[in-house]
Design a protein that fits this description.
The protein is of the alpha+beta class and 326 residues long. It has two domains: 86 residues, Winged helix-like DNA-binding domain superfamily/Winged helix DNA-binding domain (Arc Repressor Mutant, subunit A, Orthogonal Bundle), CATH 1.10.10; 233 residues, D-Maltodextrin-Binding Protein, domain 2 (3-Layer(aba) Sandwich). The protein contains ten helices and 14 strands. Strands 3, 4, 5, 6, 12, 13 and 14 form a seven-stranded mixed beta sheet that branches. Strands 8-7-11 form a three-stranded mixed beta sheet, with helices on one face. It has a two-stranded antiparallel sheet with strand order 1-2. Helix 1 packs across helix 4. The longest helix has 29 residues. It is rod-shaped, with a radius of gyration of 32 Å.
C-alpha cells in the first residue's frame, strides 16, 4: 500500500508531542487504527523504529528524536502556510482579477467597480478589457464579463441584461439629411460601420426583421474599430449608427440621440457574468459577483423599453418635421 507521507509524518509528530497515539488520532479526526497504520507505514518506509512501545507508554528512539527535530519545523511551516488561503477565503481583501470586452463595457464595469472599491477598500481590482476571448484558467481570471448568445464552456454564467442594438442619429443629422423611413432607405444615408478589432472584418448591422435577426449591409460613410470614435461621429451628426443600449440609452433619454426604425431593434445577445465554482471562491470574489448581480441584472440604465424607444423616435421625428416646416 503506498504511504501517505504527509499524514504519516503528521501522525508521528502529534504522537511525539502528546505521548499518545490515541490522542494523536483524535486531533487529526482519524481512528486509532488508522493512526497506528500510518505510523507503521512510516517506520517501514524509513526502515527504522521511531518509538519504543509498551502497553502504557511510547518514547522516541534516538532515530525518532533525530527525525522529529528535522521534521517538526517544516511541518509547522506547512501548517501555517495552509492557514493563509483559508483566512484569505473569508476576508474581503486581496487581488481581484476581472476581464471584460473593451467594446461597450467601460460604463457597465464602472457602475459596479466604483461602489465595490468604496465598500471594500482592501481589495485590489485588476481589470483587463480586451475583445479577445482568452483562456480563463491560464489568465487566472476571478470574474469575467462577455457579450454573446450563450455561456462559455467550463464556467458558471449568469445573464445580466439584453444587449440592444439601436439605430440612432443626432438631431443635427436629421436636420441636415432627414430620417430614413425603412431599412431600404438607409442606402440613401450616411451610415457608420464597425470594423471588428480582432478579425478586421466590417460587421453588418444586426437588425430584427419580424421575429428573426438578420444582417443588414450598409455602405459605410465612416468605418472604425474604435467604438468611442463611432459614438462621437453619431453624436456630432455626421452619420447614422447602430449603437448598443449600453452607450445609447443615456443619450436617447436626454434627447442627444434619436432612435430610428425602432421596430427593428435587435436584442438577441446579452451581457453575461462568468465565474468558477462558488464553493471555492474567496470572499472578495463572492462579494463582487453578488454586487454585480444586484446592480446589473435587468438594469434599466442600459436597456430601453419598447415604449421608451417608440416615444423617443416619435418625439425626434416630430421635432425634425417642425424644424423643417419652420
Amino acid at each position: 500500500m503506498p504511504i501517505n507521507e504527509l499524514r504519516s509524518i503528521t501522525t508521528f509528530v502529534k504522537t511525539a508531542q502528546l505521548g499518545s497515539l490515541r490522542k494523536a488520532a483524535a486531533t487529526q479526526g482519524i481512528t486509532p487504527q488508522a493512526a497506528s497504520q500510518a505510523l507503521a507505514q512510516l517506520e517501514q518506509h524509513l526502515g527504522v523504529r521511531l518509538f519504543h512501545r509498551t502497553t502504557r507508554n511510547m518514547s522516541l528512539t534516538d532515530e525518532g528524536q533525530q527525525f522529529l527535530d528535522a521534521a517538526q519545523p517544516p511541518l509547522l511551516g506547512l501548517q501555517r502556510a495552509m492557514q493563509i488561503p483559508r483566512r484569505a477565503k473569508d476576508e474581503v481583501a486581496g487581488p481581484l482579477r476581472i476581464v471584460g470586452p473593451r467594446s461597450t463595457f467601460r460604463a457597465v464595469i464602472w457602475t459596479v467597480l466604483e461602489e465595490f472599491c468604496r465598500l471594500y477598500p482592501d481589495v485590489q481590482p485588476d481589470v483587463q478589457l480586451d475583445d479577445r476571448i482568452g483562456n480563463w484558467v491560464e489568465d487566472r481570471v476571478d470574474v469575467g464579463f462577455r457579450m454573446g448568445l450563450a455561456a462559455a464552456d467550463g464556467v458558471i454564467a449568469r445573464r445580466l441584461f439584453p444587449l440592444q442594438l439601436i439605430i440612432c442619429a443626432a438631431p443635427a443629422y436629421l436636420a441636415r439629411y432627414g430620417a430614413p423611413d425603412s431599412l431600404a432607405a438607409l442606402s440613401n444615408h450616411r451610415c457608420s460601420a464597425f470594423r471588428h478589432p480582432i478579425t478586421g472584418r466590417v460587421t453588418a448591422w444586426h437588425v430584427k426583421d419580424g421575429n428573426v435577426v438578420v444582417d443588414h449591409d450598409v455602405v459605410a460613410a465612416l468605418c472604425t474599430n474604435e467604438e468611442e470614435l463611432e459614438i462621437d461621429a453619431v453624436l456630432a451628426g455626421q452619420v447614422i449608427g447602430v449603437l448598443t443600449g449600453v452607450t445609447a440609452a443615456g443619450h436617447i433619454r436626454t434627447g442627444r440621440l434619436v432612435p430610428l426604425l425602432t421596430k427593428h431593434v435587435a436584442d438577441h445577445m446579452s451581457m453575461h457574468v462568468y465565474y468558477g465554482s462558488r464553493s471555492a471562491q474567496p470572499a472578495r470574489v463572492r462579494a463582487f459577483i453578488d454586487l454585480a448581480l444586484k446592480r446589473l441584472v435587468d438594469s434599466k440604465s442600459f436597456v430601453l423599453t419598447p415604449k421608451e424607444l417608440a416615444s423617443a423616435e416619435a418625439k425626434g421625428r416630430k421635432a425634425h418635421r417642425m424644424s423643417k416646416a419652420a
